[in-house]
């Protein structure tokens, strides 16, 4: 008969073996599949623009390259550092790349990147000095260029010669969108050019939150009632309220009302039933900030091809020239007048060859 | 009619309010057309912003008049907003959605009621639990129902707005009242009904007694527990409706934490309105007006944009000034005190 | 050694020995409290509430399509292994919890701890980046300024309450919205303290101002400060005249007035101290965790303070325990989110349920009493009592399985009306399952009838699903069979007992 000690030892061995077996089966630590980790911005998934765009890029990378990814949705700024470190020091997987989404992860990322110099990181929307942090790639967007193109479309489409812009917070990052937008509109429509005209015919307002859709909707209501007929929103999830507003206001309006989507192709959201989008849509176009392309590119470069740039090549700029920003054309839902497209393409060519420089901050007042 | 029984002061107050509304309407008529339109938009926005606050505030009033503090309004509103959107989405009928929101709101409040009335728990503790539970659960269910994060699929069958085409051409009345949600009208009706219920029916008398002096109610042979419980359930129904207004009345989708603190503001509206139906209505409209002033100034006075935060602050400052300098809040006497039946010797 | 002693020195040494004696007495009191019956009861109740909350949240997880087992394993793994995170998350919650609890003790509901926290953190942030001081002095000054700012902000609400009768729920809440808007303006591009970046925030603090990290990656000195605050607040509330008077005002303001206590003054002071504690929470966080002030950095620490306070029964040590529990949940949820992909909202559900069960301690006593009875019965007559217990457990598992099945059906690509009906029936079955648990657990004779209902329910759900989709739901049929078996068994048993009773 076995003694109590032997029994206990046996039980412990069984538990350990079973645990290890379960661990191997569940997480496949010896597998060769490469993994990427993502820490989203506090606005969270479901904004149909920024965060969802990044997820779309990841999903595409999963189908194309067969990688796997894990993600975390922090709820406060304090969590960024925790999540990034959790991934960087993970005992279960080693991640080939950790992507930080959003400008406010800067500080947390710098600390964690300093601690784990061999771990590769990427951050979207924020410049991190690649000389100091050679393991961090910064993915930056020229949103003002894309916004200028949708602004040009708006300037040509508006019938009241008044347009509006709704931002999330009154911060330089968001005003980049607004500045480009009114600059483009002013380029195609003299009524929106020059400080006097801008002050008279351009309204901008801020929801004060990335999530309060009700606030976005109310602001848009006010702008349409004030005579603006095209409203461009760059306010994360709060901006989705504009779609509700344009649908309600267009019913009683004497002139056609439009809204402009942001970051992702959002023209389908402007249709009566976005689940099965059919024409007509009330979303004129969308300013595309191709975060999905950015995420896909950095994964392709480093995780798949194994190229990690050095020095200032670690700054990935996404602009009109490399098609990192742009505007949405969806012929199924809405056909823009060919003359508008021609004008906008000409404008685009001028921006790309440097003849026109789009301002990236508020340039009037 | 016994003239002595009429509270003259309150009559004058009502008259004064009605008179100022009439004078205001007349004054607006003499303004330039564009300004009339802006005033109309302000009125419409005020009503839209006030509706959830007033509905939830009235709910809170029913609960607190019965002696049960209900700080869980935020959680209940979120559940109402979620249920309204989910039911309207699947049943393709907004009215069923509203009904569902009212029922789930009542159900959720009855958790609070059971904890506070039957198990004599601490009201604040239970209310806090309701807030957390409602917030978390509505977000989880959002993912379950629509397989989406953050925001559900848009509901195509939202509560249809009432249209008054006759008003459309009027420069002020057009933007203010030509398109109006039935829930906004319902808000006014329910305020009147609440006044009647609270001050002119036996139930109202019992409810108030339960909150002021439960032992008299008990000695009159009425169950204090049931009276209080019904008060809590009514509060949940109204808060649920207020939440549903956000998701399928005004907007057209349920979004994570879409009430963004309106439950707390409605609590403030209830206290500001001194626990009376018309007081809550006035306070809710006042809050709604101040919130829409924030939007108004942003759109029409861009020069003030650098100080947008101070404009957004204005409502809160005004409320503090009003509460601090003008009126004193007098809550029901037996509030938050569980009623233990006296032992019969 | 000098022969003649300075009388002053003698005086202070006397004082200090007296102080030591008082502190000793106080510690004995604390230990007695911790080992007392009331505290143990409270402890068991809390554990019971947590367990119940976990069971209910497991039901919700099953319904939402997550594996509760995996989730809880990783939750506890994170909570146990990441001690530095747990304590780090807990430290601001301890302080805001104390703040709310102290106000509650004086009969005040400080709902605006968030605002006082922002004011406190803003004040210390300004001192931390605008002025240079030597090491050690700098953080102490920052904390002092933070406490003062928070206290002033709380005191404002206190004055309004005491002398103008403005309800503190409204004023503190409004003041907290004002504080958030005001501080975010200060650091925005239009405000004076912006650092010129893309983000609304202040420039980086001087290194001298930062609190040192004392353990792991995160835990800074703020935790020690928070611990000291726990003892300080306990001492203040229970051992000082001011604390006694505050409690008297909170207990019955009229009686306190009759006893000659200036209740207005006490109210104002209580809210002031409460605000100071919140301000301290903000300062320790801003110079401990962060190195600059970012607009809206807190995301609800003050609001969580309310929950912590109520969970801790407004007792400083209870607050400490509750804050540690919340910290553990938060740290565990990070691991759970990353590895088991359960969203952080689940933690909110668990927190809410724990608080709800704490709110109604009688539910726990009910369970404890009946578990005791059931245990005794099983020990006495296993053959008779066991089926009841098993049936109760079956009721509970029905809830899980029904909701799990409903969830599995719900994610099917096509939902015909009949399938929707089967989902509805499954939800009803789950509700009946709860009733079955309750009735069988209490040996209620109506339980066997409910078992029959649940058996029919399972069967109907299976049939409806078959009609709607043409595939057989095996789970439903098996569950239905088991329910029928239980029904037969219990009925047979009940008859046996009756006959036995008649025979004897």
What does this structure look like?
By secondary structure, chain A is α/β, with parallel strands linked by helices. Chain A has 2 domains: 31-141 and 296-301, Response regulator (Rossmann fold, 3-Layer(aba) Sandwich), CATH 3.40.50.2300; 143-288 and 335-352, 3-Layer(aba) Sandwich (Rossmann fold). Chain A is built from 11 helices and 12 strands. Chain A has helices spanning 4-27, 50-65, 77-88, 106-115, 143-157, 172-188, 195-201, 213-225, 241-252, 291-304, 338-352, and strands at 35-39, 68-72, 97-101, 121-124, 136-141, 163-167, 202-206, 230-234, 258-263, 283-289, 315-318, 325-327. In chain A, the strands form 2 sheets. A 6-stranded parallel β-sheet of chain A has the order 2-1-3-4-5-11, with helices on both faces. In chain A, α9 (241-252) links the parallel β8 and β9. Chain B has helices at residues 8-29, 33-65, 73-91, 94-118, 123-146, 173-177, 182-200, 202-212, 214-219, 224-250, 262-272, 277-300, 308-326, and strands spanning 162-163, 179-180. Chain B contains 13 helices and 2 strands. With 345 residues, chain B is mostly helical. Chain B has a domain at 51-274. In chain B, α4 packs antiparallel against α10. Chain C has 504 residues and is mainly alpha-helical. Chain C contains 19 helices and 2 strands. Residues 1-10 and 498-504 of chain C have low confidence and may be disordered. Classes of the chains: A alpha/beta (365), B mainly alpha (345), C mainly alpha (504). Chains in contact: A-B, A-C, B-C. The interface between B and C is large, with 53 and 53 residues.
How are helices and strands ordered from N to C of chain C? HHHHHHHEEHHHHHHHHHHHH
Query: Strand-residue fraction of chain B?
Result: under 5%
List SSEs of chain B in N-to-C order: HHHHHEHEHHHHHHH
Would you tell me the overall average pLDDT of chain C?
83
Looking at CATH, which topology of the largest domain in chain C would you report? ABC transporter involved in vitamin B12 uptake, BtuC
- State the oligomer: heterotrimer
Spatial separation of the terminal alpha carbons of chain B: 45 Å
Q: Tally the helices of chain B.
A: 13
Mean pLDDT of chain B: 85
Strand order of the largest sheet of chain C: 1-2
Individual helix count of chain C: 19
**First-last Cα distance of chain C:** 93 Å
| Shape call of chain B | globular
Helical fraction of chain B: over 70%
Residues in β-strands, percent of chain C: under 5%
Task: Give the largest interface.
Answer: B-C, 53 and 53 residues
CATH architecture of the largest domain in chain C: Orthogonal Bundle
Structural class of chain C: mainly alpha
How would you describe the shape of chain C? globular
Contiguous low-pLDDT stretches of chain C (5 residues minimum) are 1-10, 498-504
Which strand order spans the largest sheet of chain B, edge to edge or round the barrel? 1-2
């Amino acid at each position: 008969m076995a003694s109590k000690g032997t029994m206990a030892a046996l039980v412990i061995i069984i538990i350990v073996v079973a645990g290890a077996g379960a661990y191997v089966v569940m997480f496949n630590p010896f597998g060769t599949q490469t993994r990427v980790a993502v820490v989203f911005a506090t606005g969270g998934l479901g904004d149909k623009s920024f965060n969802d765009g990044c997820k779309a890029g990841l999903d595409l990378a999963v189908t194309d390259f067969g990688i796997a990814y894990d993600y975390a949705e922090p709820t406060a700024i304090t969590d960024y550092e925790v999540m990034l470190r959790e991934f960087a020091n993970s005992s279960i997987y080693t991640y080939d790349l950790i992507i930080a989404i959003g400008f406010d992860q800067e500080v947390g990322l710098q600390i964690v990147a300093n601690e784990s110099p061999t771990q590769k990181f990427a951050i979207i929307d924020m410049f991190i000095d690649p000389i100091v942090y050679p393991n961090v790639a910064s993915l930056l967007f020229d949103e003002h260029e894309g916004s200028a193109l949708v602004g040009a479309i708006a300037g040509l489409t508006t019938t009241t010669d008044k347009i509006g812009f709704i931002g999330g917070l009154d911060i330089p990052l968001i005003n980049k969108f607004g500045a480009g937008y009114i600059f483009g509109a002013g380029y195609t429509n003299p009524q929106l050019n020059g400080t006097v005209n801008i002050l008279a015919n351009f309204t901008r307002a801020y929801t004060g939150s990335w999530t309060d859709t009700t606030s976005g909707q109310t602001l848009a209501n006010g702008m349409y009632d004030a005579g603006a007929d095209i409203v461009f929103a760059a306010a994360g999830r709060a901006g989705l309220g504009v779609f509700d507003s344009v649908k309600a206001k267009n019913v009683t309006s004497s002139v056609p009302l439009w809204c402009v989507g942001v970051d992702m192709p959002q023209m389908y959201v402007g249709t009566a039933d976005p689940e099965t989008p059919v024409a007509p849509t009330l979303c004129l176009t969308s300013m595309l900030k191709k975060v999905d392309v950015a995420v896909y590119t950095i994964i392709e470069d480093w995780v798949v091809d194994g190229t990690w740039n050095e020095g200032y090549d670690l700054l990935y700029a996404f602009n009109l020239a490399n098609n990192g920003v742009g505007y949405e054309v969806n012929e199924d839902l809405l056909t823009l007048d060919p003359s508008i497209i021609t004008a906008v393409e000409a404008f685009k060519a001028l921006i790309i060859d440097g003849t026109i420089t789009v301002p990236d901050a508020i340039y009037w007042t | 009619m016994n003239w002595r029984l009429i509270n003259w002061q309150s009559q004058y107050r009502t008259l004064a309010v009605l008179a100022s509304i009439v004078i205001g309407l007349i004054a607006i008529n003499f303004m330039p057309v564009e300004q009339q339109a802006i005033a109309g938009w302000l009125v419409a926005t005020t009503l839209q912003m006030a509706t959830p606050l007033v509905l939830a505030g009235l709910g809170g009033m029913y609960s607190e008049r019965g002696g049960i503090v209900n700080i869980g309004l935020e959680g209940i509103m979120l559940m109402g907003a979620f249920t309204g959107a989910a039911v309207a989405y699947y049943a393709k009928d907004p009215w069923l959605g509203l009904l569902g929101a009212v029922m789930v709101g009542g159900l959720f409040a009855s958790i609070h009621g059971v904890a506070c009335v039957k198990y004599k728990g601490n009201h604040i503790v239970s209310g806090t639990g309701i807030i957390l539970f409602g917030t978390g659960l509505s977000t989880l269910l959002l993912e379950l129902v629509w397989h989406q994060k953050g925001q559900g699929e848009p509901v195509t069958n939202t509560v249809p707005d009432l249209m008054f085409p006759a008003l459309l051409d009027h420069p002020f009345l057009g933007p203010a009242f030509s398109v109006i949600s039935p829930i906004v009208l319902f808000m006014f009706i329910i305020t009147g009904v609440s006044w009647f219920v609270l001050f002119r029916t036996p139930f109202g008398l019992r409810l108030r007694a339960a909150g002021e002096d439960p032992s008299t109610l008990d000695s009159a042979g009425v169950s204090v527990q049931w009276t209080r419980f019904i008060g809590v359930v009514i509060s949940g129904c109204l808060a649920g409706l207020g939440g549903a207004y956000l998701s399928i009345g005004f907007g057209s989708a349920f979004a994570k934490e879409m009430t963004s603190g309106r439950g707390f503001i409605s609590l403030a509206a209830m206290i500001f309105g001194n626990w009376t139906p018309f007081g809550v209505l006035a306070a809710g409209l006042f809050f709604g007006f101040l919130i829409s002033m924030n939007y108004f100034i942003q759109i029409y006075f861009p020069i003030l944009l650098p100080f947008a935060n101070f404009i957004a602050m204005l409502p809160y400052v005004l409320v503090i000034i009003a509460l601090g300098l003008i009126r004193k809040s007098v809550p029901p006497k037996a509030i938050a005190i569980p009623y233990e039946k006296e032992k019969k010797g | 050694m000098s022969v003649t002693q300075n009388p002053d020195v003698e005086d202070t040494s006397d004082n200090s020995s007296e102080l030591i004696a008082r502190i000793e007495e106080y510690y004995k009191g604390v230990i007695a409290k911790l080992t007392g019956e009331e505290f143990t009861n409270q402890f068991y109740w809390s554990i019971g509430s947590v367990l119940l909350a976990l069971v209910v949240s497991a039901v919700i997880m099953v319904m939402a399509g997550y594996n509760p087992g995996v989730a809880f394993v990783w939750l506890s793994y994170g909570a146990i292994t990441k001690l530095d995170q747990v304590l780090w998350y807990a430290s601001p919650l301890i302080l805001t919890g104390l703040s709310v609890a102290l106000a509650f003790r004086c009969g005040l509901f400080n709902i605006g701890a968030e605002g006082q926290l922002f004011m406190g953190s803003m004040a210390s942030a300004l001192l931390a980046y605008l002025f240079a001081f030597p090491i050690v002095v700098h953080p102490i000054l920052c904390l002092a300024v933070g406490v003062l700012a928070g206290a002033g902000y709380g005191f404002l609400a206190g004055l309004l309450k005491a002398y103008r009768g403005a309800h503190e729920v409204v004023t503190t809440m409004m003041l907290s919205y004002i504080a958030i808007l005001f501080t975010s303006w200060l650091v925005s591009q239009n405000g004076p303290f912006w650092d010129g970046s893309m983000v609304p925030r202040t420039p980086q603090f001087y290194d001298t101002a930062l609190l040192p990290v004392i353990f792991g990656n995160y835990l800074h000195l703020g935790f020690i400060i928070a611990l000291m605050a726990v003892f300080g607040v306990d001492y203040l509330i229970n051992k000082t005249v001011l604390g006694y008077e505050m409690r008297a005002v909170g207990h019955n303001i009229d009686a306190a007035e009759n006893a000659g206590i200036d209740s207005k003054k006490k109210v104002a002071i209580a809210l002031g101290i409460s605000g100071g504690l919140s301000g301290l929470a903000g300062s320790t966080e801003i110079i401990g965790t962060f190195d600059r002030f970012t607009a809206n950095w807190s995301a609800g620490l003050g609001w969580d303070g309310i929950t912590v306070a109520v969970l801790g029964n407004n007792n400083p040590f209870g607050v400490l325990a509750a804050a540690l529990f919340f910290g553990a949940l938060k740290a565990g949820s990070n691991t759970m989110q990353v590895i088991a992909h359960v969203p952080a909202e689940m933690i909110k559900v668990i927190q809410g349920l724990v608080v709800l069960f704490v709110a109604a301690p009688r539910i726990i006593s009910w369970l404890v009493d009946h578990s005791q009875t059931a245990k005794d019965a099983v020990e006495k007559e296993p053959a008779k009592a066991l089926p009841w217990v098993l049936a109760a457990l079956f009721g509970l598992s029905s809830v899980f399985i029904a909701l799990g099945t409903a969830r599995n059906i719900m994610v099917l690509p096509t939902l015909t009306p009949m399938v929707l009906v089967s989902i509805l029936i499954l939800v009803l079955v789950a509700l009946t399952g709860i009733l079955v648990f309750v009735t069988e657990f209490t040996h209620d004779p109506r339980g066997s009838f409910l078992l029959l209902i649940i058996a029919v329910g399972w069967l109907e759900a299976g049939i409806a699903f078959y009609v709607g989709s043409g595939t057989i739901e095996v789970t439903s049929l098996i569950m239905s069979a088991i329910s029928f078996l239980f029904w037969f068994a219990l009925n047979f048993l009940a008859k046996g007992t009756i006959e036995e009773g008649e025979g004897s």
